[in-house]
């Protein structure tokens, strides 16, 4: 055993010495520039500041920013990283320098499936491919006309959620709020894309889909040495690439099945499909035919991956966090349910247009997104050239992170920042649409989440329906611990017993 240890130790020391010398030379070469970099904590040779980031990086960065300010520089191995934690700095990144900072740094796990070269979330917005994919998404998924056309679908799926809750109420069974709302959201999106449900509340299939989506998110967001030392990428030391491949291949297999069915149907049909019956996949497949085809099946698979991952997990997370906050703040829960009862009365079910008449519920959603943004650091941006932000240098190829979680809890911006107080938004013209930089859970600028309008409608409709139809009984206390992937989950899922309200 000692011989093995010595054989391993000698090459390791050689590599360590090489990196130390290389790092020292690089530091001397860049010392004239480093004085212009944002402030940041001292760093160790080779690893930089990696040791200062724990399992919840958004919290680690927030803690460091209290010492080093709203724009700070950290070094993670070979990767320069600039983190902003104030609305003013966020505005500089997301608006003033949006064009220069609109590229992406992609995790090794994303690169393992070549997603960074195909995905609308990762490819550069100056490319023709990005503009095509963004236009397709906007036109066939998220345009006001398309969202209005799918209103009845959302209502139907939320009514199915209420039926499931009704059955659980009769059995006095606790419901996993995250899983139930995930299935609802998943079936809304799968009907828009494929015209079918992908799973049901009693089916184990939904667990596989749920696990694949969350697994992919965690693989993309988990710490990975290959992100900081690219030469280590092939080793996959944390197993993130293997996990990403496994999870996405399960999803791709589902997508390929629908692509095959639709393609076969199309070849057998002579006349074009009625426009009213066309779904998102129909529109995508139209672009795969002919000599000047703009997409192939691989492009479609990766675009669908974006739609499902971005649209399902984030929305169900937000519903779960909202319910958890309301259950731990009973006075707020009473106020929210009273408003719903006053507006909807004895109608028996919630209509989507009712939500515009519920300012307190809208405030509850905003407050949930303030305290629990689905993507707490947004997706990482990359500086295409050296750029000056707030008088500091953001060097070319640096990763830029906007800590919207920290901004949402900044005592210089928010009164009682850690308390769940929806009232703070009443009478205030603050929204989540990317113009108010103290509240940008969906991002801003050209990289703003295109699914924002649909996400807000789904979350609001599910939340209002749950609060209108049921009271809620906790079998256990609610903890608010988090677990980090790209998205922010509750560490322990919220299980709660629905109690059906009597309406006479």
Automatic annotation (TrEMBL):
<dbReference type="GO" id="GO:0005506">
    <property type="term" value="F:iron ion binding"/>
</dbReference>
<feature type="binding site" description="axial binding residue">
    <location>
        <position position="449"/>
    </location>
    <ligand>
        <name>heme</name>
    </ligand>
</feature>
<comment type="similarity">
    <text>Belongs to the cytochrome P450 family.</text>
</comment>
<keyword id="KW-0560">Oxidoreductase</keyword>
<keyword id="KW-0349">Heme</keyword>
<dbReference type="InterPro" id="IPR001128">
    <property type="entry name" value="Cyt_P450"/>
</dbReference>
<keyword id="KW-0479">Metal-binding</keyword>
<keyword id="KW-0408">Iron</keyword>
<keyword id="KW-0472">Membrane</keyword>
<keyword id="KW-0812">Transmembrane</keyword>
<keyword id="KW-0503">Monooxygenase</keyword>
<dbReference type="GO" id="GO:0020037">
    <property type="term" value="F:heme binding"/>
</dbReference>
<dbReference type="InterPro" id="IPR017972">
    <property type="entry name" value="Cyt_P450_CS"/>
</dbReference>
<feature type="transmembrane region" description="Helical">
    <location>
        <begin position="6"/>
        <end position="27"/>
    </location>
</feature>
<dbReference type="Pfam" id="PF00067">
    <property type="entry name" value="p450"/>
</dbReference>
<dbReference type="GO" id="GO:0016705">
    <property type="term" value="F:oxidoreductase activity, acting on paired donors, with incorporation or reduction of molecular oxygen"/>
</dbReference>
<keyword id="KW-1133">Transmembrane helix</keyword>
<dbReference type="GO" id="GO:0004497">
    <property type="term" value="F:monooxygenase activity"/>
</dbReference>
<dbReference type="InterPro" id="IPR036396">
    <property type="entry name" value="Cyt_P450_sf"/>
</dbReference>
<protein>
    <recommendedName>
        <fullName>Cytochrome P450</fullName>
    </recommendedName>
</protein>
<dbReference type="InterPro" id="IPR002401">
    <property type="entry name" value="Cyt_P450_E_grp-I"/>
</dbReference>
């Amino acid at each position: 055993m000692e011989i093995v240890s010595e054989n391993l130790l000698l090459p390791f020391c050689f590599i360590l010495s090489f990196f130390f010398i290389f790092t020292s030379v690089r530091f001397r070469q860049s010392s004239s520039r480093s004085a212009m970099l944002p402030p940041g904590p001292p760093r160790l040779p080779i690893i930089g500041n990696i040791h200062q980031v724990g399992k919840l990086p958004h919290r680690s960065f927030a803690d460091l920013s209290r010492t080093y300010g709203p724009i700070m520089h950290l070094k993670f191995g070979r990767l320069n990283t600039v983190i902003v934690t104030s609305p003013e700095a966020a505005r500089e990144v997301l608006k003033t320098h949006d064009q220069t900072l609109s590229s992406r740094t992609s995790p090794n796990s994303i690169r393992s499936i070549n997603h960074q070269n195909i995905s609308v979330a990762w490819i550069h917005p100056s490319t023709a491919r990005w503009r095509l994919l963004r236009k397709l998404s906007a036109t066939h998924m998220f345009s006001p006309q398309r969202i209005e056309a799918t209103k009845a679908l959302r209502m139907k799926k939320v009514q199915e959620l209420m039926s499931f809750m009704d059955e659980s109420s009769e059995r006095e069974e606790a419901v996993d709020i995250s899983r139930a709302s995930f299935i609802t959201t998943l079936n809304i999106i799968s009907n828009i894309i494929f015209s079918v449900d992908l799973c049901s509340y009693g089916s184990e299939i939904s667990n596989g889909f749920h696990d694949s989506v969350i697994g992919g998110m965690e693989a993309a967001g988990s710490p990975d040495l290959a992100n900081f030392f690219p030469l280590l990428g092939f080793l996959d030391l944390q197993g993130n690439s293997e996990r990403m491949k496994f999870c996405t291949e399960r999803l791709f297999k589902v997508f390929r099945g629908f692509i095959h069915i639709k393609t076969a149907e199309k070849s057998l049909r002579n006349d074009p499909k009625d426009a009213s019956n066309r779904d998102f996949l129909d529109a995508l497949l139209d672009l795969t035919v002919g000599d000047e085809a703009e997409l192939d099946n691989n492009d479609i698979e990766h675009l669908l991956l974006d739609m499902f991952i971005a649209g399902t997990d984030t929305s169900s997370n937000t519903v779960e966090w909202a319910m958890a906050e309301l259950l731990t703040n009973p006075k707020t829960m009473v106020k929210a349910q009273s408003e719903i009862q006053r507006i909807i009365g004895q109608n028996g079910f919630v209509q989507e247009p009712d939500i515009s008449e519920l300012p307190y519920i809208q405030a509850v959603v905003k407050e949930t997104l303030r305290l629990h943004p689905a993507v707490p650091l947004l997706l990482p941006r990359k500086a295409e050239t050296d750029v000056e932000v707030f008088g500091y240098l953001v060097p070319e190829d640096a990763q830029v992170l906007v800590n919207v979680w920290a901004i949402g809890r900044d005592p210089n911006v928010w009164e009682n920042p850690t308390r769940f107080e929806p009232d703070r938004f009443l009478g205030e013209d603050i929204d989540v649409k990317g113009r108010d930089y103290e509240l940008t859970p969906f991002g801003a600028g050209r990289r703003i989440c295109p699914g924002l309008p649909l996400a807000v409608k789904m979350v609001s409709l599910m939340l209002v329906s749950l609060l209108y139809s049921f009271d809620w009984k906790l079998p256990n206390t609610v903890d608010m611990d988090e677990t980090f992937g790209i998205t922010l989950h509750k560490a322990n899922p919220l299980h709660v017993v629905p109690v059906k309200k009597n309406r006479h």
